[in-house]
Design goal:
The structure holds two protein chains of two kinds.
Chain A: H1 3-15, H2 24-33, H3 46-54, H4 57-72, H5 75-102, H6 109-123, H7 137-159, H8 165-184, E1 202-203, E2 206-207, H9 211-232, H10 236-246, H11 248-253, H12 258-284, H13 294-307, H14 313-332, H15 338-352, H16 356-367, H17 378-382
Antiparallel strand pairs in A: 1-2
Helix pairs in contact in A: 1-10, 2-10, 4-9, 5-9, 5-12, 5-13, 5-14, 6-7, 6-12, 7-12, 9-12, 10-12, 13-14
Chain B: H1 2-20, H2 22-53, H3 60-78, H4 81-102, H5 111-133, E1 149-151, E2 157-159, H6 160-182, H7 184-194, H8 196-201, H9 206-231, H10 238-253, H11 258-278, H12 283-297
Antiparallel strand pairs in B: 1-2
Helix pairs in contact in B: 1-2, 2-6, 2-9, 2-10, 2-11, 3-4, 3-5, 3-9, 3-10, 4-9, 6-7, 7-9, 10-11, 10-12, 11-12
Classes of the chains: A mainly alpha, B mainly alpha.
């Protein structure tokens, strides 16, 4: 695969969700003058158009399947597989948004999620009574998500000073630095042990510690994140962000505040990662430095790349595959060798299908003659 | 202005620390120099590879660990520490060469993909190494003449080996400078850093230069593995530690500059050791603050140039 094709696959594929011509140069110029929803369907109102774009029959099928799933599946599959995939997927989605649409691959998304998780434990209740403040859960969650989002914005402000490959290195360095801080600091982060017994709340008769309610909570958050991304990339902000990804200099000379857009993208991604982090701490009932070590940070990248950064659904696809591998690779290989399996799968995907599983799927469809490949078929890009 | 203020603050703190406990201060200083030497050895290879080829090799930490393990095996069998260092250098250089030939050569200019591939490689390598060598902690025995301790003024006793590490790093740094500045191949490498296309156009086999540089960069990581493994120890997890160290050093010092790597390593080594000695729970924060300051005022690093 040529360099140009790879770059297009990684970057511009998503841009064309906005139904702009594929030619890079023209697209950027025309983008500016376009209305917020540049999908021209004559005789159709804007609201219905958006709705029709977002909810196609395929969506209804998937949605019903997702809603019915916990009623059929065992608690193990509902909780360990379903809810965990949704939570991890939400964190990976924040990376897909940043990387796929903003062109900024940040490894610190797990760190943001971890900050939110830690703050839930610190503000709320946990086994470490000396540190936890014991606030009511809505207040604790609100503050945790808000502060984690602020932290994500700060990380963004720091890393947008650099570009491309530097971003990965700097966010990796930030993430590992926070990991060591959490591990060494006992006054605030309780050091190596972290916090145990961080439980999900129960509202009325609904106990979110149980598998099915927690699954629906995770599903709700994941769907909200998914549709937020899908709407946002069509909004003026998202379009400008994609323009900046493709040609920051040109967008700058057109009068767009490049840095501000990038930092804002970090903030939005940080919000999603923070909510995912709260879900994950409730899922695990505990948080420790191990939750956000280098391995965990890279796992989020693996999930996003595995599914494909071309489309927000890739994050969740990747998460499902990752969680399934994590749970069932043990049956195939030694328990200790999980990293070898996931590393190998990741390597194979990166080497042979840069678009991840979505790219493979498009390739299969192309082979079967049901659609042309990813790059030249406008119909595919709508989905 | 700001720099002068910072220097004054550091000087004041140093005076206070010397008056308070001179031995602790100078021991920490020497330890910091040792650590900085190690960081320099690892980061110089990383920055060399990045400077010439724009290849971000996130498997650099794995090469460090791999060189250390192979060096340990050779040292254990032959009983010679010098052979172990040599084996560490060569084994990591060979793995680096294979990486360059099989992966990087086919992905020239695809930054993100290279990064992802090297992340995949480092995961696989880390697990394979865990498989082969287990989770035990290995230690080396440096030869007798640099073992034991030396009496120094101000700090009564200091491990001789740590002084040797510092001397070694300075020697390797100077050798690297000589190689880059004075030899024909070094000139080709510098020319490649500045303008790869022009170098190729003037009839130099750029691929050979790339392969050689990659092998040297990887080999330096392996060498550092044995040297660092002798000063401290080797165990799984060291790969990420040294990867992070080289990342931070290179970010602070500037990409592609060996001199920058030296300055960055010195700063980070000092920050880490003094942090550990005077504010144990927050030592990482000092490293982080240095990185943030460097990025805020010099986004390309202290010695970095515009790409």
């Amino acid at each position: 695969m040529s360099a140009a094709r790879w770059r297009r696959a990684m970057n511009t594929g998503a841009a064309r969700t906005s139904h702009l011509p594929a030619t890079k140069g023209r697209a950027n110029v025309r983008l500016v003058g376009l209305p917020p929803h540049p999908v021209v369907v004559p005789g159709d109102s804007r609201g219905r158009r958006t709705l029709a774009l977002l909810v196609t029959p395929r969506y209804l099928v998937v949605l019903i399947a997702l809603l019915v799933y916990p009623l059929i599946a065992s608690p193990f599959f509902t909780y360990q597989i379903g809810a965990q995939s949704l939570g991890l997927g939400l964190i990976a989605l924040s990376l897909t948004f940043l990387g796929g649409y903003g062109g900024m691959v940040s490894l610190a998304q797990m760190t943001v999620a971890g900050i939110a998780g830690y703050l839930v434990a610190i503000f709320g209740t946990s086994s470490a009574a000396a540190i936890s403040l014991g606030w009511a859960w809505p207040v604790a969650v609100l503050f945790a998500v808000a502060i984690a989002t602020l932290a994500a914005t700060a990380i963004g402000w720091l890393s947008v000073r650099t570009e491309g490959i530097y971003t990965i290195m700097i966010t990796l360095a930030i993430g590992v630095a926070f990991f060591y801080l959490a591990q060494q600091n006992y006054t605030l982060f309780n050091g190596f042990q972290g916090f145990n017994k961080v439980f999900a709340p129960s509202i009325g008769g609904l106990d979110f510690r149980e598998a099915v309610p927690f699954y629906y909570l995770a599903l709700g958050c994941a769907l909200a994140g998914y549709f937020l991304v899908r709407l946002l990339v069509r909004a003026p902000f998202g379009l400008a962000l994609q323009g900046i990804r493709d040609n920051p200099r040109r967008m700058n000379s057109l009068g767009f505040a490049v840095t501000a857009h990038r930092v804002a993208a970090y903030a939005v991604a940080g919000l999603m990662a923070a909510i995912g982090g709260v879900l994950m701490v409730w899922y695990n009932n505990r948080i420790s430095p191990g939750t956000l070590n280098t391995g965990a940070m890279i796992n989020i990248l693996i999930i996003a790349v595995l599914g494909g950064m071309r489309h927000p659904i890739g994050a969740f696809l990747g998460a499902i595959v990752f969680v399934l591998l994590q749970n069932f690779a043990i049956d195939l290989v030694d328990r200790e060798r999980f990293n070898l399996v996931i590393g190998g799968v990741f390597l194979a995907i990166v080497l042979f299908s840069p678009d991840g599983l979505l790219g493979l799927w498009a390739l299969v469809r192309a082979r079967l003659g049901r659609g042309r490949p990813l790059h030249s078929n406008p119909r595919r890009q709508r989905s | 202005m700001l720099g002068i203020l910072v220097l004054l603050a550091i000087a004041a703190a140093s005076v206070w620390a010397i008056v308070d406990n001179a031995k602790l201060y100078f021991t920490t200083l020497l330890n910091a120099l040792t650590l900085a030497s190690l960081y320099f050895l690892v980061a110089s290879g990383f920055t060399l590879v990045f400077g010439l080829m724009r290849n971000v090799n996130l498997a650099h930490g794995s090469l460090y660990l791999f060189g250390a393990y192979i060096g340990w095996m050779v040292g254990d069998r032959s009983g010679s520490w010098v052979l172990a260092v040599l084996a560490g250098f060569l084994s990591a250089a060979i793995v680096g060469l294979v990486l360059q030939l099989l992966v990087f050569r086919h992905m020239q200019g695809q930054d993100l993909r290279q990064t992802l591939v090297t992340i995949g490689v480092s995961i696989v390598l880390a697990d394979v190494m865990l498989w082969i060598w287990g989770a035990e902690i290995y230690t080396f025995d440096p030869p007798g003449w640099i073992y034991g301790s030396t009496a120094l003024p101000l700090v009564q006793k200091f491990p001789t080996y740590r002084i040797a590490v510092f001397v070694m790093a300075v020697a390797i740094g100077l050798a690297l400078w000589w190689f880059l500045a004075r030899t024909r191949v070094g000139m080709m490498i510098r020319a490649g850093v500045d303008d790869r296309g022009m170098l190729a156009a003037s009839g130099v086999d750029v691929q050979k230069v790339f392969a050689l540089t990659f092998a040297i960069g990887a080999g330096l990581a392996g060498l550092a593995g044995v040297v660092g493994g002798s000063a401290l120890s080797i165990s799984p997890g060291e790969d990420t530690r040294y990867l992070l160290a080289s990342l931070v050093v290179v970010i602070v010092g500037g990409m592609g500059s060996v001199g920058g790597a030296a300055i960055g390593a010195l700063l980070i080594g000092l920050a880490e050791q003094f942090g550990l000695a005077y504010a144990p729970t927050y030592s990482v924060v000092f490293t982080f603050v240095i990185m943030v300051l460097a990025l805020a005022f010099k986004p390309r690093g202290l010695m970095g140039r515009a790409a």
